[in-house]
Amino acid sequence: MKKTMKAASLLLVLMLVTAMLAACNSSAGGSGSVSVGIVLPTKDEPRWVQDEQRFKDALKDSEYTTEILFSQGSSAKEKENVDTLINKGIDVLIITPQDGDAAAAAVEAAKKEGITVIAYDRLITNTEAVDYYVTFDSVAVGAAQGQYLIDNAQGTGVPLYLYVGAASDNNAFLFFEGAWSVLQPKIADGTFKIANSSEAEALKDTAELTRDQMSKILGQVTTNWDPNDAKNKAQTHLTAVGADLKGDVSVLAPNDGTARAIADVFASDGEVTSFLVTGQDAEKASIQYVIDGKQSMTVFKDVRTLVTDAMGIAVDILDGKTPVTTGSYDNGKKEVQAKQTNVIVVDEDNVQKELIDSDYYEASEFTGL
């Protein structure tokens, strides 16, 4: 009887020790858990699909693991993805929010579990549950787009068509802030005449816009980052204006997908004799448009560097180190420490140097180089 009790006691002790070890392994990110959880906005844009592979490659030679989920344009799916990753025991969450405000609830849930939150490329707003922000200088992107239109405009009274991203994306405001900072003096002095926004026209003498003032302009000219929305809006605008707002025109388009859609509309209007159109992201299709003279420029944001910066912060955290940052952004609740990556303007003159010679793309992927 005593031997049986001793054996039972020993078995119970062994079970308790095993359970404790399993719990320790789980909390420490042991086998079966995920070190870094990543949530990206959609698989429908080439940029994010490419980022998926780059994130995987960034950790392939390390001891850490990652899982990448896509929200497909849904904040509800985004929250579900974050919950899934929390349950897998992640230590770090890297997330590109679909909607900066709506993502707050998701990251607050992660923060409650002691997870470090890194906002990737888009800032999560109105919450204290964001630790770091990895970004390109979005204001500089917009300023580069606006400056390109200024540098290549001919004469005065040039019709200027304004288009922006989604009002739910804080970056759309930052891009427009940068563009307006350089375009506004040239609108005020008559170099440009705003063709498609009464709100912007009413504010043409205002150098620094408030958030509410920008919201009113964005409400008139948003594309929601959707090429179809951009196409429809451009068609509506060109139908509404007379010949005096056509001819040689300048177009501020927020990114490459919308730029191509808008360019196609302007190219099909017989009263538009020439147009300059901006973009950003250096998407492959837009680089071909630049080579073919259909899109004037794109702002190249080398996402290889952005991925490296994001994963660098994540690994520092996992290694118990303090990440190095280069600035901060006010998200409405706190100053979020940020790592900023530089941007490069690409047009037909330097496309070979910046995108082919740097091995970002292969020459064989294009015609007419």
From TrEMBL:
Domain Periplasmic binding protein: 36-321
Keywords, comma-separated and alphabetical: Signal
One family name in Pfam for this protein: Peripla_BP_4
Keyword Signal found: yes
InterPro entries linked: Bact_Solute-Bind_Prot2, Peripla_BP_I, SBP_2_dom
Keyword Signal belongs to the record: yes
Compartmental location: Cell envelope
Secretion signal span: 1-22
SUPFAM superfamilies the record matches: Periplasmic binding protein-like I (SSF53822)
Main location: other
Name under which the protein is recorded: Multiple sugar-binding periplasmic protein SbpA
Gene: sbpA
